[in-house]
């Protein structure tokens, strides 16, 4: 049994932002493994609510994430930050699902206790909301600690506000960003995760449709004992400077700094922004690139809310529910697509790669058509056994002739569909042991299936793989046996692997 493989095997905030085109999605190399399932998605996501179609949270292997990111290649880094607790975020793509992912990789020993890291990750992984770039997994392997999230291909709010190349963000889109991020914070607060570390314009990401999302990475610290804020001290909540602790009120203060970013289009320290607001210099505060294309009433409402969020005393700041209440009425262009307001192309679904038509063997196995499989094995005869045996002249003994005669009688019985007799003859051939034949094992496997013996059929198919490790037929027969054993998920995986091996074999036979 040991020969069988596959399923049968027992944007963070950068100090110096990496301004790469996060939308570029090359064919990142990857391969699939079978990671252990971890926490299930929240009931809301399972019910198809606000969470949408988000992958179930699970534990990934380091090998899978390394392959998905091209070995954590430098060119796949989309952000890097932190001197005291440095970390990198990579873009990647999983082969198993073709899902684009973002992988946050901490330095070694950032979280010495793997159980503590996994517990924190599972807590964040239970959250599912359309306003979040949701966490879909994690990895603990040796000293390595990684988080896996949905990939947002259209850059950060900071990129669109501070480093834009084609056009700045229009006013209605700025209102949408503020409202959607408020919704995300309110959801997290209601789900018992009110602490968000280092909320800023780099934590706001845009998905494939241009909709703003809040990065889930901010729901975890950069390390077990790391600082919660990596930004300039001028932007941190005053109480954090006093005691080094983050509270829900600290998050509101940080949200206020994001509102100032949206209003001004540049980084203005909160104290300076408050001075302008108190001096009624709102026009000076507003982004000149908007060229006056905004509602004064809406701008005043946003300025008032920012002022409340930036109050020195935490108790004087609004809660997340108040944020949503104030901002919801301001989104007057709710029907306009975000990609239009953001000035990016409409997302087109990635075209599926052209598929070769399945082979006759693949078709027969997927239909569980044992008669068709028998006809294919008869027609194939023993051509796939070439090279599996090299016999010396001395080995051509009477015993050898008897063994080959048993195989011949088994072949006749197999052709005539006398499967019980075929099993008996093939067993005599196998028991002598002088020759090994993957074809005999495959044929006897089918005979066992015809006689309703799926366990024996699986053993023979696995033995065929042992003799010929990359033989598609061995995998096809395992798939059929697994299906007969009601192991449908494993059967599906095995059928897929058989098809891939068959295609690889066909490509190699064609040559360059």
From TrEMBL:
GO terms for biological process: brassinosteroid mediated signaling pathway. PROSITE patterns: PROTEIN_KINASE_DOM. One of its GO terms (cellular component) is plasma membrane. It is an enzyme of class 2 (transferase). It is a lipid-anchor. It is found in: Cell membrane. Pfam families: PK_Tyr_Ser-Thr (PF07714), TPR_BSK1_C (PF25575). Its EC number is 2.7.11.1. InterPro entries: BSK, Kinase-like_dom_sf, Prot_kinase_dom, Ser-Thr/Tyr_kinase_cat_dom, TPR-like_helical_dom_sf, TPR_BSK1_C. Residues 7-19, 493-506 have a biased composition (Basic and acidic residues). GO terms for molecular function: ATP binding; protein serine/threonine kinase activity. This is non-specific serine/threonine protein kinase.
